[in-house]
Amino acid sequence: MTEHIKTRKDGAVGHIIFNKPEKMNAICLDMWQGMGDAMEMFENDDDVRCVVFSGAGDKAFVAGADVGKYEQERGDKDSQERYAKTGEDAMQKIYRSKKVTVAAIDGYCIGGGVSVALVCDLRYCSAKSSFGQPAMNIGIGYRYSSLRRMVDIMGYGAAKDMLLGGLRLSSDEAYVKHLVGRVLPDEEFWPWIEKVTKTISVGAPLTAEDIKYTLWTYAQDESKRDTDRCEELFQICYASEDYKEGIRAFAEKRKPVFTGK
Question: Which InterPro entries did the record assign (predicted)?
Fold first, then answer.
């Protein structure tokens, strides 16, 4: 795996870290590939229930693409298609994951950083963070899948503001436009992220899978929705040992211990 993507585990929480602080974690081809490989590794790790994405240093989550590598990595049609496919494949691994994914945004979140955040289940940021999608400044294009994810979360008008108007959003503006779920004071951000991800990691994984798949299904075109699978996951929850454990723990006034069975 590239040195520009770091991973670690804290109990049931996996961390994927964009590690190019000297360039404010500007993303390039090997980082897209490394991000996908890291997500696949955690997806196959039964001990991991929550995956957190963050940026190294204290200035940026991902401050856009590493434009200095564009000529090398996206200079012709074939290389551009390879770059786009690598990035989309990596984001699909996050978007379709059974794990709960969290974008912990502490600083600049620009371009590809916004794209990564949008495929995560949850997005939280520090007060100093800012967001932008300056696509028109570079001349890049967006596929349907990327723009649909943005509109699903932010809405049609807000997506146009960022993409066509080139508006840079403050953390508070990002919250108002539903790009993030909460804004934390800078000094409280990481302790809060640690607390909320720990809470997620001890929750019922079958319930998380049911919720994630059903909401993902809702976001698809109606003709592609597998509602039978949604019903199956619903029934699995109520037939599970975890459901029995949850009921027992409630009656016994203790915290449940879920196993995913």
Answer: ClpP/crotonase-like_dom_sf, Enoyl-CoA_hyd/isom_CS, Enoyl-CoA_hydra/iso, Enoyl-CoA_hydra_C
